[in-house]
Predict the 3D structure of the following.
Amino acid sequence: MITPLVINAEAFNNDSHIEARVSAVGAGAQGALRTALCFLYQDDGPINLPRLRLVVAEEFLDEAERVVIRWLYTRTNGSLRKTYGSAALLAARVSRYRCEACGFPDVRVLNIDHVDGRVVGTAFACLCANCHAIKSRKHDWTGLKFVPEGASAHEQGY
């Protein structure tokens, strides 16, 4: 059986956890690791992560943290920044990196869902792949209920 990669929920907003982790590394990496851990675990933490700090901090992160930080980095700093941005990061933090629908904790299957479809300024939800697929098949990308072409009046809700 595959071992789940789970983020420890007790690490959120826990300054002593962050400082214990930071003090365990060399002085040259402490600032980068502190920034990375605050990015992951502080509700009011940074909303983007400088690339150099990510690179330096990665070797001191556990596997689940590396998965999450890379996933969020592309949405806050990288190629998906315009589509997601800080609102997606905040939604993921609030969910404590668990599916908001079913609570599944393995970070490898998390998705950021556009709650109302791909609409500018939309809210986001953190969902596992299963819950995201179920929700997406129930609604089309505009957020409206999906009705197949040629559906009967009953299927269309009339």
